[in-house]
């Protein structure tokens, strides 16, 4: 009888010690363990449509160093094409039967007194060669350009394309809403994001939230600055009455941008 009394008296103490050990173990586990509910992704580069408004793009655009080939510009005091071409040293990227080349700009300007839509005078930067773009960027080198071709110029969201150039691995991946399949004006928080990964290092090269019967297209991939890495030229207008070209150089932290409006 005495032995039973002793056992009954120490049982609550033993149970309390065991419970404290379990609680301590749980506390230690909660402070260090990471519990995953499912597959994860790098949220610093990707966003769901619901959190688009919280995304802050780090892309910086610079204008004034590109001109669109064979395009008519509406003329004002600050954007007369002839005056722009007189400042700096302008070159052009063109394509022939052998490939792509960078050479000194060759062009002629065609003036018109009045554009039918706007009523403004225009200048057309015309080249008799297959010119893609005119630029005033010293880091781009003259000569033949090493290029690659990819299977699809339009990369749909959640799709990617991978390729290798000069020993470096590249992946272009898209996120967001497909502007070719969705009306952005009726889709809340719609966005399209293009991510470039080079040798496992990723960066955002496009983040766009405006599309009106337009889409993003990859126009050119090649080594324009001859640093052994690829450069990219995108067409990414926000409206069907806008032409917008973005040039992304591997040796430059900024994006070069040129736009042209032809709305009525």
Q: What's the structural blueprint in terms of helices and strands?
A:
Elements lengths: L1 H31 L28 E2 L3 E3 L2 E4 L6 H5 L5 E6 L2 E6 L3 E5 L9 E5 L4 E5 L7 E3 L14 E6 L2 E9 L15 E7 L2 E8 L8 E6 L8 E5 L6 E7 L6 E7 L3
Parallel strand pairs: 1-17
Antiparallel strand pairs: 2-8, 3-7, 4-5, 4-8, 5-9, 6-7, 10-11, 11-12, 12-13, 14-15, 15-16, 16-17
Any overview of this molecule?
- By secondary structure, the chain is mostly beta strands.
- It has one domain (61-261).
- It is 14% helix and 36% strand.
- The protein is built from two helices and 17 strands.
- The chain has helices spanning 2-32, 81-85; strands spanning 61-62, 66-68, 71-74, 91-96, 99-104, 108-112, 122-126, 131-135, 143-145, 160-165, 168-176, 192-198, 201-208, 217-222, 231-235, 242-248, 255-261.
- The termini are far apart.
- Residues 1-51 have low confidence and may be disordered.
Structural class: mainly beta
Low-confidence runs (pLDDT<50, min 5 residues)? 1-51
Shape: globular
Strand order of the largest sheet: 1-17-16-15-14
Strand content: 35-45%
Could you estimate the helical fraction of the residues in percent?
Answer: 10-25%
- Please outline the major beta sheet: 5 strands, mixed
Order of helices and strands: HEEEHEEEEEEEEEEEEEE
Measure the end-to-end span: 104 Å
Average of per-residue pLDDT values: 81
Tally of strands: 17
**Number of domain units:** 1
Number of helices: 2
């Amino acid at each position: 009888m005495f032995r039973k009394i002793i056992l009954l008296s120490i049982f609550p103490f033993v149970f309390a010690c065991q419970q404290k050990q379990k609680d301590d173990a749980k506390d230690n586990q909660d402070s260090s363990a990471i519990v995953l509910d499912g597959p994860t992704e790098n949220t610093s580069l990707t966003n769901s449509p619901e959190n688009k408004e919280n995304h802050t793009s780090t892309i910086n655009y610079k204008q004034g160093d590109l001109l669109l080939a064979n395009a008519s510009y509406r003329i004002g005091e600050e954007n007369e094409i002839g005056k722009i071409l007189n400042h700096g040293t302008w070159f052009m990227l063109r394509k022939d039967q052998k490939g792509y080349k960078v050479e000194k700009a060759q062009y002629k300007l065609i003036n018109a007194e009045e554009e039918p839509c706007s009523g403004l005078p225009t200048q057309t930067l015309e080249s008799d060669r297959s010119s893609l773009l005119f630029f005033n960027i010293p880091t781009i080198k003259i000569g033949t350009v090493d290029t690659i071709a990819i299977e699809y110029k339009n990369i749909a969201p959640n799709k990617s394309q991978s390729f290798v150039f000069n020993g470096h691995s590249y992946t272009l991946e898209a996120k967001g809403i497909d502007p070719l399949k969705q009306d952005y004006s009726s889709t809340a928080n719609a966005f399209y994001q293009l991510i470039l990964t080079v040798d496992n290092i990723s960066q955002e090269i496009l983040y766009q939230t405006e599309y009106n019967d337009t889409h993003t297209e990859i126009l050119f991939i090649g080594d324009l600055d001859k640093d052994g890495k690829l450069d990219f030229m995108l067409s990414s207008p926000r409206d069907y009455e806008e032409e917008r070209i973005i040039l992304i150089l591997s040796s430059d932290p900024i994006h070069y941008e040129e736009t042209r409006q032809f709305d009525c």
